[in-house]
Amino acid sequence: MSKSTHSHQDGDPVLMRRARLAKIHLAKKALAMEEESYRALLRRITGKDSSAAMEIAELDAVLAEFKRLGFAEKARLRPRKPAPHPHQRKVYALWGALAPYVKDGSARALRSFCRRQTGVETPEFLDPEQANKVTEGLKAWLKRARANAPEISA
After folding, report:
1. Considering only CA atoms, which of 18, 23, 105 is closest in space to residue 67?
2. Is residue 144 exposed (0-12), middle (13-18) or buried (19+ Cβ within 10 Å)?
3. Which of 23, 59, 95, 113 is the most buried (most CB within 10 A)?
4. Among 112, 24, 7, which Cα is nearest to 67's?
5. 46 pLDDT band (50/70/90 cuts)?
6. Smallest Cα–Cα separation from 123: which of 97, 85, 76?
7. Are 51 and 66 in contact (CB under 8 A)?
8. 51 with 59: CB under 8 angstroms?
9. Per-residue pLDDT at 10
10. How many CB atoms lie within 10 A of CB 23?
11. Sign of dihedral through CA atoms 112, 107, 89, 120?
């Protein structure tokens, strides 16, 4: 297979750089870093004060530092297109509501849950009866999670 037929995930350096730069700026925003602190972090990690001037390895080092500081990428909870049926959309809605209470709120974790409940991994392939079994399990899990969550005063 020639290089031109590979996806960006297979190593197109331009797209890999852009993706890392985007993650760095998302991390900066998520950690509410001021510009001065951000530039100081870049200098401390790479000796450069601009992410645009960095090589991929340097961008990776900056991302590793952001992760050490507490940045966590949010997993995509929904497929690109909404599920075609209401019973399937309900599964995604409940999973989204449960995400703050679980260690892994990723789509992969949802597929694992569906597989354990029904034997069918992908929520889009659930028939109404299977989706009902999954939604009832998610509702019970959500009820337990909310009951065990610490009280937050406003």
Report:
1. 23
2. exposed
3. 95
4. 24
5. very high
6. 85
7. no
8. yes
9. 52
10. 19
11. negative
Please give the backbone phi and psi of residue 11, each rounded to the nearest 5 degrees, phi first. 125, 20
Q: Where are the domains of the chain?
A: 3-68, 86-148
| Chain CA centroid to CA 150, Å | 24
Structural tokens at position 77: 């909870």
27 is written with which tokens? Answer: 């991390």
Q: Please count the other Cβ atoms lying within 10 Å of the Cβ belonging to residue 105.
A: 17
Question: Residue for token digits 């900056």?
Answer: 62
What single letter denotes the amino acid at residue 1?
M
Give residue-wise pLDDT tens across range 126-147. 899 999 999 999 999 999 988 8
The single residue listed with the structure tokens 């992760």 is 67
Place of tokens 């009902």: 132
| One-letter amino acid for residue 25 of the chain | H
Closest CA to 85 of 119, 128, 135: 128
The band of 76, judged by pLDDT with boundaries at 50, 70 and 90, is low
Question: Within a 10 A sphere around the Cβ of 68, how many other Cβ atoms?
Answer: 8
Tell if the pTM clears 0.70, that is, is over it.
Answer: no
